[in-house]
Amino acid sequence: MLQKFLSLLIRIIVSIIARVEVIGAETLPPGGFIIASNHLGRVDSALIFYIFDRRDLILPIAEKYQHHPFFGPLGEALGGIWLDRFNPDIHAVRQMMNRLKKGGVLFIAPEGTRSKTEALQRGKPGVSFLANKAGVPIVPAALIGTEDRVIVDNLKHFRRSHIIVRAGKPFELALTPGKERSQVLQDETDEIMCRIGALLPEKYRGVYADHPRLKELLKEDYA
Fold first, then answer.
1. What is the rounded distance in angstroms from the CA atom of residue 183 to the CA atom of residue 14?
2. Domain ranges, residue 101
3. What's the whole-number average pLDDT of the chain?
4. Cα 135–111–165 angle (5° rounding)?
5. What pairing do the DSSP bridges indicate for beta strands 105-108 and 33-37?
6. pLDDT at 93 over 90
7. What is the DSSP letter of 202?
8. Given CB 3.0 to 4.6 Å as the disulfide criterion, which of 14, 109, 120, 184 pairs with 39?
């Protein structure tokens, strides 16, 4: 009951401070899947509760917020999973896998933290590992307009921010025989990040701007 109330409250707050434009929602697959997106600001995490009205959302939250007087209780009430971003967190991974296999939707940023440059940083292999283990598709997503400085500036001037959430085509990772596991995970992570990058305006593509795979996707009119 508390989770339902908080989700409604988040939707109300987001609708007050921003106009959210969702593109590509019709491509979302049935059953459990992972939404992998870029990470620009604090509003990013709230968007999953704005877009989806369901109780099986899976939101990993950085462990540094677990004992925060506000974000700690809020994360618990929303069913978040506390995640150690800098060390292998087997407990958190198992929780996410179990909930994915039950049909849950995981919202996660492969970068692991907000981008200080506001453009894509190197992705970490956790998402590809989870997708392989849980056997679920990945939906790449681009968030545009959620930069903290933009949101704060608009609030100061009593303006609503314009946020765009753009979902790409779902895809599944294919096992590549003959390669070391570490290289496979890196290749899969690059694939995920390039698919996110193909949905973003050029200024947001960061370290993947010149990646050959991203250029291939853009030529294919992937978005």
1. 40
2. 2-219
3. 91
4. 80
5. parallel
6. no
7. G
8. 109
Q: How far apart are CA 131 and CA 122, in angstroms?
A: 18
Q: How many domains does the chain have?
A: 1
Sign of the CA dihedral with 142 first, then 46, 2, and 12 last? negative
Q: Using CA atoms, how far apart are residues 100 and 136, in angstroms rounded to an integer? A: 8
User: What percentage of the chain exceeds 70 in pLDDT?
Assistant: 97
Question: Model confidence at 165, in pLDDT bands (50, 70, 90)?
Answer: very high
Distances (CA, A) of 153 to 57, 107, 158, 205: 30, 26, 9, 23
Per the rule left: phi > 0, alpha: psi between -120 and 50, beta: everything else, 20 is beta
Tokens of 24: 């590509």
Identity (one letter) of the amino acid at 192? I
Higher pLDDT, 166 or 175: 166
- Classify residue 72 as exposed, middle or buried by CB count within 10 Å of its CB (0-12, 13-18, 19+): middle
Buried/exposed code over 182-210 (b: 16+ C-beta within 10 A; e: otherwise): eebbbebbbbbbbbbbbbbeeebbbbbee
Residues of the chain by 3-state class (helix, strand, coil), percent to 5? 45, 15, 40
**Do residues 138 and 32 lie in contact, with contact meaning Cβ atoms separated by under 8 Å?**
no
Token pair 């019709």 is at which residue?
26
